[in-house]
Design goal:
The complex is a heterodimer.
Chain A lengths: L4 E7 L5 H7 L2 H10 E6 L11 E7 L5 H13 E7 L1 H5 L11 H8 L22 E3 L6 H13 L10 H7 L5 H5 L15 H4 L16 H11 L3 H8 L7 H7 L2
Parallel strand pairs in A: 1-2, 1-3, 3-4, 4-5
Helix pairs in contact in A: 11-12
Chain B lengths: L3 E5 L9 E7 L5 E8 L6 H4 L8 H6 L6 H16 L5 H32 L4 H7 L1 H22 L8 E2 L2 E2 L5 H27 L10 E6 L10 E4 L4 E2 L4 H4 E4 L8 E4 L5 E2 L2 H8 L5 H10 L11 H22 L14 E9 L2 E9 L5 E7 L1 H20 L4 H14 L4 H4 L2
Parallel strand pairs in B: 6-11
Antiparallel strand pairs in B: 1-2, 2-3, 4-5, 6-7, 7-8, 9-10, 12-13, 13-14
Helix pairs in contact in B: 3-4, 4-6, 4-11, 4-13, 5-6, 6-7, 7-11, 10-11, 12-13
């Protein structure tokens, strides 16, 4: 019998939501187990194989020296390394702290900071080569399936790079910016969620991170026109993907 | 008897990153016992400062991917308390439905995926498929039910989006809730079978009477609202939490340890909830508890699994009640920004969760204080382990290790939360 493709799932600085999204594939779970061997997954398994893996899904950003060492080890043992979700891509929400002095950050939480070895939060791509990105906080289940299918077929996964706006058009949503003057991040945010928020009556907050080549300054101008302050705009761009080059620049100092 | 060292570098089948180190002396006395949470802290309380009141919910949600709903509701209620905003009955009802759906998902995950393999002698749920596929499929079915309700009311299962300050950005349709209602009715059988399963599995006979705490409300099984009550006389309003509960740092753990002032560590979670709020359970849940043969109040932490199963019966009953009464009418709330302090305690699946925020006149957060259930429990887990190890110290190192891990898993710790 042909050997099954070996999957490993790891958690770094994050919330486990991406792993949960994987675990929420209840309909596909039994099929997945037939097609793949889950060799390493601490949250689910007690016996874990630490030798080498075909596909490693890494959730979470890197924020301690120990994590830097660990991600390098995982890279060496993995054929394909996937940044699984926004934290692994660029630190996501926890990266908001990167603009506050580290001692100030630590003093707020711990009376004694001598055992705290945290640094700024960065994506795993800062330390190792990554082969694919699954965007989102959390990534959509369908995109996880798309990636795993592509891996089995040995083809490139079709992951979207266009803005959420395209999905709003698919859903026949009226544009929140033009029809209600609501500050929506959709025009610069990568699609893949199915435009959940605008479809459910609220603005996109950008939880899938930037689309390819976003025009952030044009959107910031629109936000100003709607009445947002510079601080409001900074908060919008420094939330899920403040470390991404375009949003980093738009948020300013 | 020889000296024994128990060392688990990375505890499996729990959320997050924790280790365990125990040194047992020749006479069975525990020399060192450390539940070493090495989860990298994320400092939410620091970077929430400077953020706006209306984004606190979505940011706090990212503390936890297993219990985002609990963080969202607690954050929303704390912010609303700071703004002096009282949500409508419909909002309260739909939020409770959201909270319950998250309890179903998370408690089923804990029972079937994280702890059942221990109790049935497997390394994980995956090899169980071969011998017990009906049980595994039942777990998947129940978990999916919880997720689908969160999805329908909240927009998605992990980090839902529709709950906002004052209300909901969008309501589910009558038809969607009708379909869910039918599935809930069907799921009752699965829930009873879950109670049966967990009442018949052998668990260690270990009791340690300690402070059990949960929120409590005479009119309903308290999840989102209630007074913070213990089995030993504590009975406080959520706004006064900090007058009674404080935290201590241990240098081997990035999660702080919680204590009741002038007292000791305490337990939160499904077992304390049932011990304190048994009267408010649905009648079917009470019957299921009686048929299990286990008496409540109960102080064996391993009974937590059964407590989750009993809550599952209640959760289904209460979800149906909410669906039957919620009118689904469009509402609008009027939010006025002003400065103030607000606190809230809710019951996350793993136990009591505290958030408080101080806002300035522009609705910007100037102070944040968050204590998740696993931070509440961390010290009590150590105390339980200490007493438990002394009862099993003559077993082999492998057996002691597994049994200690099982005790930790009975608490279903969410370690990411604890080192938020």
């Amino acid at each position: 019998m042909k050997e099954k493709t070996k999957i490993a799932i790891f958690k770094f600085t994050g919330c486990a939501g991406c792993q949960l999204e994987f675990l929420h594939l209840e309909n596909e779970f039994l099929d997945l187990i037939k097609l793949f061997e889950i060799s390493y997954w601490k949250m689910v398994k007690r016996d874990n194989d630490e030798k080498k893996w075909d596909i490693s899904l890494v959730e979470g950003g890197i924020s301690t020296p120990r994590e830097i060492q660990e991600i390098k080890q995982i890279r060496k043992k993995s054929k394909v390394l996937v940044a699984f979700g926004d934290c692994a891509i660029g630190g996501c929400i926890p990266s908001i702290r990167n603009w506050i002095p580290q001692m100030e950050v630590e003093d707020k939480v711990y009376p004694d900071t001598s055992n705290i070895l945290s640094t700024k939060v960065r994506g795993i791509g800062e330390y190792v080569r990554i082969d694919a990105e699954l965007k989102g906080c959390p990534p959509h289940r369908e995109n996880i399936i798309e990636l795993l299918k592509a891996a089995l077929l040995k083809i490139k996964p079709r992951l979207r790079q266009h803005p959420v706006c395209v999905e709003c058009k698919f859903n026949d949503n009226a544009c929140l910016i033009t029809s209600k003057r609501i500050a929506c991040m959709g025009p610069v945010t990568c699609a893949g969620c199915g435009a959940i928020c605008p479809t459910l009556g609220r603005e996109c907050e950008g939880c899938f991170g930037p689309m390819s080549n976003p025009n952030t300054s044009a959107l910031a101008d629109i936000f100003r026109d709607i009445g947002l302050s510079d601080q409001d705009i900074k908060r919008k761009f420094r939330k899920y993907a403040g470390m991404s080059p375009h949003f980093f620049k738009e948020a300013g100092d | 008897m020889t000296e024994k060292t128990i060392q688990v570098d990375y505890i499996a089948r729990v959320e997050g990153q924790g280790a365990l180190k125990i040194n047992i002396e020749k006479d069975g006395k525990v020399k060192i016992l450390e539940f070493q949470i090495f989860e990298p802290p994320r400092f939410f309380e620091s970077f929430l400062i400077g953020r706006k009141y209306d984004e606190v919910m979505e940011i706090a949600s990212r503390i936890c991917g297993i219990c985002p709903v609990a963080h969202q509701i607690t954050a929303l209620r704390a912010v609303e308390n700071a703004l002096g905003l009282e949500p409508s009955q419909q909002v309260k009802d739909l939020r409770k439905l959201m909270a319950i759906s998250a309890h179903i998902q998370s408690n089923v995950l804990s029972m079937y995926f994280l702890s059942l393999p221990d109790l049935m002698g497997y390394e994980s749920i995956i090899p169980m498929l071969k011998d017990h596929s009906e049980i595994v499929k039942r777990g998947l079915r129940l978990k999916k039910l919880g997720n689908d309700i969160t999805d329908i009311v909240g927009g998605r299962a992990v980090h839902p989006v529709t709950m906002i300050v004052g209300g909901f950005s969008s309501l589910p349709s009558k038809n969607q809730l009708k379909n869910i209602r039918e599935r809930l009715l069907d799921a009752k059988k699965d829930a009873f079978e879950t109670v049966d399963l967990f009442s018949n599995l052998e668990i260690p006979d270990f009791n340690r009477k300690c402070d059990h705490i949960a929120i409590s409300d005479p009119g309903q099984y308290a999840i989102n609202y209630g007074r913070f009550k213990s089995n030993k006389g504590l009975d406080i309003d959520e706004m006064n939490y900090r007058k009674y509960i404080y935290e201590k740092q241990k240098l081997y753990s990035t999660a702080l340890h919680s204590l009741v002032k002038n007292r000791d560590s305490f337990m939160v979670g499904p077992l304390p909830r049932i011990n304190i709020n048994f009267k408010q359970l649905s009648s079917d849940a009470k019957d299921a508890a009686k048929q299990s043969g286990i008496k409540f109040p109960n102080y064996n932490p391993f009974v937590s699994h059964l407590a989750r199963a009993i809550e599952l019966v209640h959760d289904i009953d209460e979800s149906i009640e909410i669906i039957d009464r919620v009118p689904l009418k469009q509402e609008k709330s009027n939010i006025i920004c002003n400065s103030g302090f607000g606190a809230a305690i809710t019951e996350a699946p793993r136990g009591s969760l505290y958030h408080s925020y101080e806002l300035n006149n522009n609705g910007i957060v100037i102070n944040a204080d968050i204590v998740p259930p696993t931070a509440h429990n961390a010290y009590n887990i150590e105390k339980d382990l200490n007493a438990f190890v002394q009862t099993i110290h003559d077993l082999s190192i492998e057996e002691i290790t597994l049994k200690c891990e099982m005790l930790i898993r009975a608490y279903d710790p969410c370690i990411s939360c604890s080192a938020h």
